[in-house]
Design a protein that fits this description.
heterodimer, A: about 325 residues, alpha+beta, five-stranded antiparallel β-sheet, four-stranded antiparallel β-sheet, 14 strands, about 30% helix, B: about 220 residues, Ubiquitin-like (UB roll), DNA polymerase, domain 1, 2 domains, six-stranded mixed β-sheet, two-stranded antiparallel ribbon, 7 helices, 8 strands, globular, binds flavin-adenine dinucleotide, binds FE2/S2 (inorganic) cluster
Chain lengths: ~325, ~220
Amino acid sequence: MKTIKRFEHINAKTIDEAASILKAGNASILAGGTDILGAMRFEILPDYPEILVNLKSIPDMEYIREEGGMLKIGALTRLEDIAKSNVVQAKYTALAEAAHRTASPHIREMGTISGNICQFTRCWYFRLPDNRFDCVRKGGKKCYAMTGENRYHSIFGAVKGCVAVNPSDTAPALVALNAKIKTNKRTIDAEQFWDMVKPGSTILEADEIVTEIQVPTPAKGLKSSFIKFAIRKSIDFPIVNCAAMIGKGEARICLNAVHNKPYRCINAEDVIRGKSINESSADAAGAAAIEKAKTLPGDRNKWKIQLARTMVKRAILGCA
Amino acid sequence: MSETKKTDDETKKEISNLSRRKFLKDAGLVIGGTTVGSMAFASGAEAQQQEKGDNAPSETTPTSAQSECRAPIELTVNGGRYRYHVEPNWTLRQLLRDEVGLTSPKDWCGGMGACGSCTVIMNGRPVLSCLTLAIECNGAIIETAEGIAKTKHPIIDSYIKWNAFQCGYCTPGFVTTAKALLDRNPNPTEEDVRDALGGNLCRCGTYQQHPKAVVDAAEALRQK
Ligand SMILES: Cc1cc2nc3c(=O)[nH]c(=O)nc-3n(C[C@H](O)[C@H](O)[C@H](O)COP(=O)(O)OP(=O)(O)OC[C@H]3O[C@@H](n4cnc5c(N)ncnc54)[C@H](O)[C@@H]3O)c2cc1C
Ligand code: FES
Ligand code: FES
């Protein structure tokens, strides 16, 4: 096993302390460590962090509670605890299901919700050990997936020249549920949270820390669902996933792993909003969701377009 | 593997040579410097002290010297209490194998979290020791397959009875994950077991035997 290279480890006691360390230099946040430590072991980052700031040493960052008309989840809450939570399962079904379908039981026991939404892309050029591809996401000039092996890559074009996809399972659920992501600096609509920011995937500033996830309690009659297609049932990233929240004249549908950031299916929402949910209405919405989809050079990712259409359809049917 | 890549062992040797040199140079500076509870940490070989509990493995060989960037941790492994000075970049797997001397945390996927063969139980949760930092295990209660075997947990006999392994390489990872499940759920269905063991890979393909073995062990435990 390749040893993880040296770094300094600091147990932060407060969010402010963590932020000031992050501000000072080449430091990275450490939550559950399941993504960042793998990235460091295989040296895939253009700048190897000199310091890891552990957030687990900050008190009161792990909780799930309903308060003031919303569900509040502490940033360091483990995915397994979210998946198993009765209240999340009952009222925020898409999120419970997404957390349950993430990775493997071990990774869910260790991995946190903030780490899940902030994880790096899984593009294989980006992830190749020892930082071998100097791709656009690492500050280089080229996206190697654009014309290379891109069968798992974006079906909605590039963002800033990169066709990698966001691999998070919980992200589309948070968008569909109209969640907000609270940091030490501001509160961000889930929909605005992700972008192609080298080498990461969120709009967070260097010293910005996610502190809480806030999900408005869906009105009675609103239902949500999550569905995922992966090659294996467990320990596998989504090829395409989809979350939906529908009912009471409202519809929010979000795909992920199809684009650089979670992809909200506005067209599909317009088709299904206010209609009764059945095979044909769900199918029509699925077709609308992929209206703007296009393959990458080589057409290797064409199959994902069909998958996306079906995932949208089934997520909608899941809200019936 | 490229030549530049070092194995855990090589790097550990390097670190320990380095820190030993540093230790000789700085000798005296750190002796008795740090205290945790009532016990003073010494440098050199004594730094890696342990208090053996009933179930503590006897094969432990404390070795490496202390370097100034090491942090003191105190943890319980299979009922025995241990104190170490650890480097920030050591994983729990490294600590258990190289310092405590327990070889059940295996490695198959190279430490990317994708195989489950390095699983140990930490504070009741099944975790991947390859992605857990040793420095964050201060105060932790760790159980490995060795400890589970020593307590004669029914899962062990059940795995043998149901032939739930062939080469056995993945078995410690399965056994620890299954034990963590049984600790929380004394009456799991085969589906519960399949779900809980979803992060463990077996190259020999013994998958269908595990749910039977674990459900059977649960039964034995309930009758105990
Ligand atoms: C084998 C394997 C399979 C996987 N399969 C899936 C899958 O199917 N679906 C899926 O969605 N994911 C999958 N993952 C990814 C996994 O879910 C993430 O690794 C995990 O959720 C990250 O959480 P963590 O707490 O361990 O984060 P860490 O590794 O600690 O951190 C990840 C990143 O988030 C940043 N970060 C963490 N917390 C904060 C915060 N509070 N504020 C700001 N930034 C923060 C860190 O700086 C780091 O860059 C898989 C991972 C592995 C190793
Ligand atoms: S060695 Fe594969 S998960 Fe730890
Ligand atoms: S028994 Fe051989 S790997 Fe599982």
